Amino acid sequence: MSVSDSAVTTWALRRSPPTSTTDLYHRGMYPLLVFTGANAPTTVEVFPRGEAIHYREYAIQHGVPTEAILIEPQARNTGQNIELTRALLAEHDIGVRSVTLMSRPYQQRRAYATCKKLWPEVDVICASRPLSLDDYVTSIGDVDKVINMLVGDTQRITKYAELGFAMPQAIPAEVELAYARLVDAGYTSRLV
After folding, report:
1. Judgement on whether residues 125 and 38 belong to the same structural domain of the protein
2. Any idea where the DUF218 domain is (predicted)?
């Protein structure tokens, strides 16, 4: 399959509900889906055969043609999602000028910064299923888990830039203050 220079390729990063991805595909937002991901400790029960495989099955069940889907089932973190997807597309001789990264709402900044570091020549758009915070917490079913995930991802925005995994980003003072207060309150289970 050949994709033009203006192609937009999308892949799901870590438990992004495939509903949004398939909906956008059916609206003609992009010609190809790349689902990427093995498992993380937080996803193995939901996706026992790996995230990419389950996402692919969901997309096919919801009308996405198999020829419009590639999977990358090995990635275990956001950097690998991007690097292995990039290699997969090159292997299929698919040129990419822009990508839409589908992720959890709170992961968009980090996904963007990681993609810009590892794949700087593509234009990057981030998206997630549109949910209010209350609806997101309800969908997860555990407010403490959500707060821990938010705190962990906030730390990773700075930490991963320091480690060279992502481009640096400015963190607003009020976000730094909220992060410190939540760490002090014990929301530390997702810190690196």
Report:
1. yes
2. 21-125
Tokens of 159: 């930490």
CB 11 within 8 A of CB 35: yes
State the total domains in the chain: 2
Indicate whether 38 and 107 sit together in one domain: yes
**Could you tell me the two tokens for 124?**
């990057």
**DSSP secondary-structure letter at 11?**
E
Predicted pLDDT of residue 192: 92
Answer yes or no: do 50 and 122 share one domain.
Answer: yes
SS3 (DSSP) at 29: coil
| All residues at 6 or more sequence positions from 5 whose CB lies less than 8 Å from its CB, including other chains | 95, 97
Give the model's pLDDT for residue 13.
Answer: 37
Q: Which two tokens stand for residue 94?
A: 């698919």
* Average pLDDT, integer, range 5-18: 42
Q: What are the DSSP calls for 110-141, one per residue? A: HHHHHHHHH-TTSEEEEE-----HHHHHHHHT
Provide φ and ψ at 124, rounded to 5°: -120, 130
H-run or E-run covering 56: helix 51-61
Q: What is the pTM of this model?
A: 0.84
Structure tokens at 31: 């010609």
92 C-beta neighbours (distance < 10 Å), count: 13
At 148 the pLDDT is 95
